[in-house]
Amino acid sequence: MLGALSTLPYEAVTRIMVLLGVGKYSVYQLNSLIVTLNRPNAVLGLATTSVLSGLLAIIFYHLLKKLGWDYLIAKSVGFGLVSWVFLEGLFVWIIEGPGLIPPRPINDYYVHMIGSVVFGISLGLLFRKYLLKKQQVT
């Protein structure tokens, strides 16, 4: 649930940047292309992004159990950026590479890189608020 909630600020930032003309797709629109291929849809994007970010949050939680909970925000931002690089590579290889959608402008990559930093910050803050105290008790 915390991973899905962390996508809300990510969507807000990328949506604002799209409205300002900096990028082509918000994060929900971009992730909906996994399902629709050429018709961006925010509702489908919310569903796909929530599932994916929930999985990422679970992976991050288990990494934190091994790496420790110190420097939580820095680790979550780093995890968000590494996840972005990996997922962006997969997206380009699977969706853009075969020509299923036209290549995105380079600005779109920067929009989503900034958004992944926002995702990392919000995920770290939510982990700190809801999970860190539980980890210190056990």
Q: What is Rg? A: 15 Å
Tell me the span between the first and last alpha carbons: 21 Å
- What fraction strand? under 5%
Number-wise, the strands total 0
Provide the succession of SSEs.
HHHHH
Unreliable residue runs: none
Q: Give the proportion of residues in helices.
A: over 70%
The average pLDDT score comes to: 91
How many helices does DSSP assign?
5
Tell me, what's the shape? elongated
Give the class from helix and strand content and strand pairing.
mainly alpha
Major β-sheet profile: none
Question: What do these coordinates show?
Answer:
With 138 residues, the protein is mostly helical. 80% of the residues lie in helices and 0% in strands. It contains 5 helices and no strands. It has helices at residues 2-19, 27-36, 42-67, 72-96, 106-137. Helix 1 packs antiparallel against helix 5 (106-137). It is elongated. The chain starts with a helix and ends with a helix. The relative contact order is 0.19. The mean pLDDT is 91.
SSE topology:
Blueprint lengths: L1 H18 L7 H10 L5 H26 L4 H25 L9 H32 L1
Helix pairs in contact: 1-3, 1-5, 2-3, 4-5
Give a summary of the structure in a few sentences.
The chain is an all-alpha fold. The chain has 5 helices and no strands.
Defining traits:
5 helices; 138 residues; mainly alpha
